[in-house]
Write a structure and sequence with these properties.
Radius of gyration: 48 Å
Helix content: 40-55%
Oligomer: single chain
Shape: flat
CATH architecture of the domain at 60-140: Orthogonal Bundle
Number of helices: 12
CATH class of the domain at 60-140: Mainly Alpha
Strand content: 5-15%
Strand order of the largest sheet: 3-5-4
Order of helices and strands: HHHHHHEEHHEHHEEHH
CATH topology of the domain at 60-140: Arc Repressor Mutant, subunit A
Distance between the termini: 174 Å
Length: about 270
């Protein structure tokens, strides 16, 4: 079959199959529904991933993965030194302690540590202060730090409070005037503070003129100082200051040289 015969054969097949002929109204023969074309653009399909911005940041800046064991060790040493110090440490001082590093290298490691703290969302940073570096908490946690410092100041006993508390503990029940007579200074504010801390309490009133208040220690006092009972206090003799083990050498006083008498001419001039 040549090309002309093949073309005639195809035309005969199309004329014999009514379902494949196209009509004037835009439908195919044998179908009642017209074929419509949707003009709207195809719907975009969302990518099947939950890759977040934080994950992208970690991929773009893999600082932690890129550091070797020596770098990690140096950063840990700097971190331990700053954590243990109560005062700021300069970059030069840190370089001397770490050994083998310059102040510029120490500053680079401190910046890397702060970046690590920020990524981990920790509550502290290494801040430059007083020509050095020191670990400090962020300002967002100021309210909680103030509460902690307040509790510490309330729980700390001054020397005056310890003296007053000792006198009350050994002489209880005692009155304020007796405590002040031993210390030699007024103790009203100190006694009030000891009462607020729960270390002493009012036991009653003395049967003397004016009926002053009697003070004594509490159970909290025993708990704080680790005593089972007030009788476990050390005896007063044990609190006395011991004399020096070596006797003090006696030194003869140095006698000043005798003052010479003035000559007779000066005495006559003075009208003597």
């Amino acid at each position: 079959m040549d090309d002309k015969e093949a073309l005639c054969f195809a035309m005969d097949c199309e004329s014999d199959n009514p379902t494949m002929r196209n009509t004037d109204n835009g439908t195919f023969a044998g179908y009642s529904t017209p074929v419509e074309h949707d003009p709207s653009p195809p719907t975009e399909v969302e990518p099947l991933t939950d890759f977040t911005a934080d994950d992208a940041a970690l991929v773009e800046d893999p600082v932690e993965d890129a550091t070797d064991d020596e770098t990690v060790l140096v950063q840990q040493v700097i971190e331990a030194l700053l954590f243990s110090s109560d005062v700021p440490l300069s970059a030069a001082r840190l370089a001397d302690l770490v050994e083998g590093y310059t102040p510029a290298g120490v500053r680079t490691h401190i910046e890397a540590l702060n970046q690590k703290y920020a990524r981990a969302k920790l509550s502290f940073r290494i801040e430059a202060i007083a020509r050095g570096y020191q670990m400090m908490t962020l300002p967002d946690f100021r309210d909680w730090i103030v509460k902690l410092n307040k509790q510490r100041s309330e729980a700390r006993l001054s020397a005056a409070a310890l003296e007053t508390l000792s006198i009350i503990a050994y002489k209880q029940p005692t009155i304020r005037a007796e405590v002040e007579a031993v210390r030699g200074v007024a103790c009203g504010e100190v006694i009030s503070r000891l009462r607020d801390m729960g270390l002493i309490r009012i036991l009653g009133r003395a049967e003397i003129v004016g009926r002053p208040l009697l003070y004594g220690t509490t159970k909290k006092f025993l708990n704080v100082f680790g005593l089972a009972d007030i009788e476990d206090l050390p005896p007063m003799e044990a609190l006395q200051l011991k004399s020096a083990s070596k006797p003090v050498e006696e030194v003869e006083p140095i006698k000043p040289p005798p003052i010479p008498e003035p000559p007779m001419s000066q005495v006559a001039a003075a009208g003597g």
